[in-house]
């Protein structure tokens, strides 16, 4: 019963976000429904070569099965042997303009059941932003909106989830953050279902408010091949995180999820360079010294 309530919200959230993005881009998303042979399915809404978005996807999924994959039971062995249901909306947007940041948002619900035992459930999610050229006003707006989404539930949530985001979206092998962060949470099941569901809803409902004003500010900024080249280089960090560290990617692949939808998050054009560093004093160097620092953008 809990899962049905959540699924209804998530499918409506997907529709609202796609509609908001289509209004800015002017090109419709392709709607691609899929079924999972082991149980469940989803709807991938994808745009490629749009007027604003070089690539983006807003995906809904609902999967269920008789047993959990290793990625889920490794940290929680008590879930072994339980059937499960997992549903969520996950999006990644890669604008073409290098001055417009990449953004990620995910909200999800998980429930595991076993005969004769109480169901185990939790919510997770968050949103984070990855600029290639940093703007203080954009970072402040994004984080302030994240804080506003959590404020009704208590003052402690934003600083806690902000730190969690900084810690999670961190490339350990590079010793650098993926972007300027945002908020991230997982295993949320206290104080009760209603409160946790409301918090997850608030995060999802605030996404367009957090991101669209930034996209609108930057989408017409003039740029050249130099900026596109740096954008492609920094996109490589995004790929590295998603393929090496992201638990959601691993969970999706291990549960037999749809590979095309899972890897939709990867940008279309990426570059790697050997031992490259930006020129001192450049706008590219400022990204590292002023924005990829895990700083507090708003008062906690």
From TrEMBL:
The annotated site for Important for dimerization falls at: 173
Q: Which reaction does it catalyse?
A: coproporphyrinogen III + O2 + 2 H(+) = protoporphyrinogen IX + 2 CO2 + 2 H2O
An annotated GO cellular component of this protein is: cytoplasm
Keyword vocabulary terms for this entry: Cytoplasm, Heme biosynthesis, Metal-binding, Oxidoreductase, Porphyrin biosynthesis
- Listed cofactors: a divalent metal cation
Coiled coil (UniProt feature)? none
What EC identifiers does the entry list?
1.3.3.3
Q: Which InterPro entries match?
A: Coprogen_oxidase_aer, Coprogen_oxidase_aer_sf, Coprogen_oxidase_CS
Residue numbers spanned by region Important for dimerization: 238-273
The keyword Metal-binding belongs to this UniProt entry's keyword annotation: yes
Active site: which residues?
A: 104 (proton donor)
MF (Gene Ontology) = coproporphyrinogen oxidase activity; metal ion binding; protein homodimerization activity
Q: Name one GO biological process term.
A: protoporphyrinogen IX biosynthetic process
Q: Where in the cell is it found?
A: Cytoplasm
Pathway field of the UniProt record reads:
Porphyrin-containing compound metabolism; protoporphyrin-IX biosynthesis; protoporphyrinogen-IX from coproporphyrinogen-III (O2 route): step 1/1
Q: Principal place where this protein is found?
A: cytoplasm
- Residues engaged in binding substrate: 90, 106-108, 256-258
The residues the record assigns to binding a divalent metal cation are 94, 104, 143, 173
Function of the molecule? Involved in the heme biosynthesis. Catalyzes the aerobic oxidative decarboxylation of propionate groups of rings A and B of coproporphyrinogen-III to yield the vinyl groups in protoporphyrinogen-IX.
Tell me the PANTHER family matching this sequence.
COPROPORPHYRINOGEN III OXIDASE, MITOCHONDRIAL, OXYGEN-DEPENDENT COPROPORPHYRINOGEN-III OXIDASE, MITOCHONDRIAL
For this chain, the family text in UniProt reads: Belongs to the aerobic coproporphyrinogen-III oxidase family.
Q: Quaternary arrangement and interactors, per the entry?
A: Homodimer.
NCBIfam families per the record? PRK05330.1 (NF003727)
Q: Return the protein name.
A: Oxygen-dependent coproporphyrinogen-III oxidase
What organism is this sequence from?
Answer: Nitrosomonas nitrosa
């Amino acid at each position: 019963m809990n899962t049905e309530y959540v699924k209804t919200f998530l499918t409506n959230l997907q529709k609202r976000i796609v509609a908001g993005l289509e209004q800015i881009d002017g090109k419709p998303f392709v709607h691609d429904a899929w079924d999972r042979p082991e149980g469940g399915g989803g709807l991938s809404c994808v745009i490629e070569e749009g007027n604003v978005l070089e690539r983006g996807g807003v995906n809904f999924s609902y999967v269920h099965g008789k047993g959990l994959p290793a990625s889920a039971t490794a940290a929680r062995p008590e879930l072994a042997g339980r059937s499960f249901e997992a549903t969520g909306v996950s999006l990644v947007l890669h604008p073409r303009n290098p001055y417009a940041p990449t953004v990620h948002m995910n909200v999800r619900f998980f429930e595991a059941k076993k005969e004769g035992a109480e169901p185990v459930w939790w919510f997770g999610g968050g949103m984070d932003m990855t600029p290639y050229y940093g703007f203080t006003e954009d970072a402040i707006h994004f984080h302030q909106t994240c804080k506003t989404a959590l404020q009704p539930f208590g003052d402690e949530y934003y600083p806690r989830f902000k730190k969690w985001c900084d810690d999670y979206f961190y490339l350990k092998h590079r010793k650098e953050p993926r972007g300027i962060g945002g908020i991230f949470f997982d295993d949320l099941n206290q104080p009760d279902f209603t409160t946790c569901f409301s918090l997850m809803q608030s995060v999802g409902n605030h996404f367009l408010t957090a991101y669209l004003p930034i996209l609108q500010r930057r989408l017409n900024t003039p740029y050249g091949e130099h900026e596109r080249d740096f954008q492609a280089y920094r996109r490589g960090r995004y790929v590295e995180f998603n393929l090496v560290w992201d638990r959601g990617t691993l969970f999706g692949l291990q549960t037999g999820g749809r590979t095309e939808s899972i890897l939709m998050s990867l940008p279309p054009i990426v570059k790697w360079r050997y031992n490259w560093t930006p020129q001192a004093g450049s706008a590219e160097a400022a990204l590292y010294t002023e924005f990829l620092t895990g700083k507090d953008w708003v008062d906690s």
